[in-house]
């Protein structure tokens, strides 16, 4: 099954806080694990002159296999993230693990892949599962989720698909 076809079914499972400065940038479209370009100075020991310098993350293009999607995905991955993926037991386990630090560093592409994997595994919509009990709080929460969805993907068709998914009622618990 093509990844492009699945992408339309995905819905974000992680509300992103703040503005996304460059949604098409390499740090949002790849797995960098929070690494970024550092800027500083080199100091020449003999004379003490400073020269500007940048340190870039150690990133490599890799084909990572997703067992759930049964597809290879071509991503730019830092060596730190690659070690973590191997330690976790694969790309799917790396994406599914939901520690707050991990979720912050996934970026937009990581969030999309996470949504695809969870959707394919048949996980219930966690947005619906964690709805507050109060009606007013539910409305505020769903409005915030919809706003985040628009920031993540500006496609109106995608937004309406999300709106229909989020608007579904939570199934009643069997006593």
Automatic annotation (TrEMBL):
Entry keyword set: Ribonucleoprotein, Ribosomal protein
A molecular function (GO) term: structural constituent of ribosome
Pfam families in the cross-refs: Ribosomal_L28
GO CC aspect terms: mitochondrial large ribosomal subunit
Signal peptide, first to last residue: none
Family: Belongs to the bacterial ribosomal protein bL28 family.
Function: Component of the mitochondrial ribosome (mitoribosome), a dedicated translation machinery responsible for the synthesis of mitochondrial genome-encoded proteins, including at least some of the essential transmembrane subunits of the mitochondrial respiratory chain. The mitoribosomes are attached to the mitochondrial inner membrane and translation products are cotranslationally integrated into the membrane.
Protein name: Large ribosomal subunit protein bL28m
Lineage summary: Eukaryota, Fungi, Dikarya, Ascomycota, Taphrinomycotina
């Amino acid at each position: 099954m093509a990844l492009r076809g699945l992408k339309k079914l995905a819905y974000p499972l992680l509300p992103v806080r703040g503005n996304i400065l460059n949604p098409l940038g390499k740090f949002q479209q790849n797995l960098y694990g929070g690494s970024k370009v550092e800027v500083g100075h080199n100091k020449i020991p003999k004379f003490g002159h400073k020269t500007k310098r940048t340190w870039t993350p150690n990133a490599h293009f890799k084909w990572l296999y997703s067992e759930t999607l049964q597809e290879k995905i071509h991503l730019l991955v830092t060596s730190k993230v690659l070690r973590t993926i191997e330690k976790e037991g694969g790309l799917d386990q790396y994406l599914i693990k939901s520690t707050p630090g991990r979720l912050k560093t996934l970026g937009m592409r990581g969030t999309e892949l996470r949504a695809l994997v969870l959707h394919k595994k048949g996980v219930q919509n966690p947005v619906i599962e964690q709805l507050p009990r109060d009606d007013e709080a539910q409305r505020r929460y769903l409005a915030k989720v919809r706003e985040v969805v628009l920031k993540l993907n500006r496609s109106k068709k995608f937004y309406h698909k999300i709106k229909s998914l989020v608007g579904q009622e939570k199934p009643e618990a069997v006593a």
